[in-house]
Every structure is written in C-alpha cells, then in structure tokens.
Write a structure and sequence with these properties.
The chain is an alpha/beta fold and 269 residues long. 39% of the residues lie in helices and 20% in strands.
Length: 269
C-alpha cells in the first residue's frame, strides 16, 4: 500500500519508518522546509525496544506528488483542521484518511472535510519519544485498534494487513469512539498531572495528593462519558489508570521536555 504520513513527530516517524521498512510506499508530509531537508538528507533514525536502524523515507512540504491509498494523520489535535484543509485542496477522492490521534474532535473534523465514508479512526498504545528531527526512541509496544471494521477484504482489512506486515499488533473494531474515550480518560488522569508536577507516571499513585487529584479527574471524565452513553473498554476506570501508571512508570509527559513522550495507554499484550 501507499501511505502519506502527515506530521513527522514521534508517532509519525515511527509509523513511517516501520511501514517503509516492511516494503510499503511511504511519504512524509511536513510544513517546515528546514525539517524536510534534514530528514531527506539523514533519514529517520529509530532506537529503542525494536533495535536501532535508519530508514530513508521521502519527505515533502505542501503537497505530495502521488495520490496515496491511505493518509495517516499524525499532527496535534489543534493542527487537524489546518492539515485537513490543506490536504483537501489536492488529495484525490479515493484516498482513505486514518487518525490515531489523542483527544476528541479529530474524527468529526475529518468527516466534515472529507466525508464520513472516507474516515477511519482508532487508538494506539505504541510509545515513542522525539529526540530530534527524524530521530525517535521507540519506548514501548502496545496494541493498535482501528475501525469501523467494514466488510472483509475491505479498506480496514487492507490497513490492518499492512500494519501487521510492519510488525504492529493491530486489530479492527466497530465502535472506535468508545476506544477513543477510553484512551482519553486515561490521558485525563495522567498527562496533565505529570506535566505540571514533573513526576514520572509511576509516582502519581504513590503520592497522596497526586493520587487524589488523579482519581477526581478520572471520576469527572467518566461521568461525562456515561452522560454521552459511551461504553468504556474497561470495567474499572480508576484501576485502569493505576495500571497504566505502573506499566509506564518511567514515562515522561510531553509537557516536561522538548521531545514528545507518548504515554502507553494499554500495557503491551
């Protein structure tokens, strides 16, 4: 398959490198010409739990030269609309758009611009840290879930197959909105607290003050989810947040450093 990965941050570089290494066509799209030049010259460097390697992935600014089968959106949520509007100006009508971004609203923005039938969503528990332009540390492996499932041998099946070939633990599901909310609630419990306090994830449950704030934040988020008729992908939200804190004890939130540290939301299987 041919992929266009929008955003050469930690997760964008991870997906681009692994998919390219597996033999798929991959192009990165960036808006900063100096970073485009750097990655084109030096490639993507990956270190961490899956080893050390370098992959040459072409990077372009503005627009791609070829129409991809799948566009993978890997920008921050506040950049989603601008990225989507820029894409819509030249992207063909056949390409599927996949978002694995954190937070709410990304699916809705993409559906508004491209139409609901073209949009795929999901969550990932892969963990990556941006060390420099095109240089990442693969910090942790976890599951990736995308959907809606659709027919067998359809677009979702093709994406799942491509990601499996790249070594990702991935499956499809029907109601991805519930999964997105499940990940959001864990992020609500952990990310802001670690960014504000400077603590690593594993310390939050062990300090009374941060534990109480974490529990209250999760409780409020869960009440909103229940009011919206969301079925969370785990039975005990407080227990899940604590499990994630322990499973990602050494993780550092992105607000604490110049690099992005993506929290693992579900422990690796």
């Amino acid at each position: 398959m041919d992929f266009l990965v929008v955003g050469p941050g930690a997760m964008g570089c991870l997906f681009a490198a692994r998919l390219k290494k597996a033999g798929h066509g991959v192009t990165l799209l960036d808006y900063r010409p100096e970073r485009v030049d750097h990655i084109n010259e030096h490639g993507i460097r990956v270190e961490g739990i899956t080893g050390e390697y370098e992959v040459r992935v072409p990077v372009v600014a503005g627009k791609g030269s070829e129409i991809p089968d799948v566009v993978l959106i890997c920008v921050k949520a506040n950049q989603t609309r601008k990225a989507a509007e820029d894409l819509a100006a030249w992207l063909g009508s056949e390409a599927r758009i996949l978002t694995l971004q954190n937070g709410l609203g990304n699916l809705e923005i993409l559906e508004e611009i491209f139409g609901k039938d073209r949009i795929l969503g999901g969550v990932t528990a892969e963990g990556a840290t941006l060390l420099g332009p095109g240089h990442i540390r693969h910090a942790g492996q976890g599951g990736t879930i995308i959907g809606p499932e659709g027919p067998s041998e359809g677009p979702v099946w093709e994406v799942v197959s491509a990601f499996k070939e790249a070594g990702f633990n991935i499956r499809s599901a029907e109601n991805v909105n519930d999964l997105i909310w499940g990940k959001l609630i864990v992020n609500v419990g952990i990310n802001a607290l670690t960014a504000i306090t400077g603590l690593k994830n594993g310390r939050l449950p062990n300090i009374e003050g941060t534990r109480l704030i974490m529990e209250e934040a999760v409780r409020e988020a869960v009440s909103v989810a229940h009011a919206k008729k969301i079925t969370l992908p785990y039975p005990d939200p407080q227990k899940r947040v604590t499990e994630v804190c322990l499973a990602t004890a050494e993780n550092i939130a992105s607000g604490q450093s110049s690099g992005k540290a993506r929290n693992l939301i579900f422990p690796p299987p």
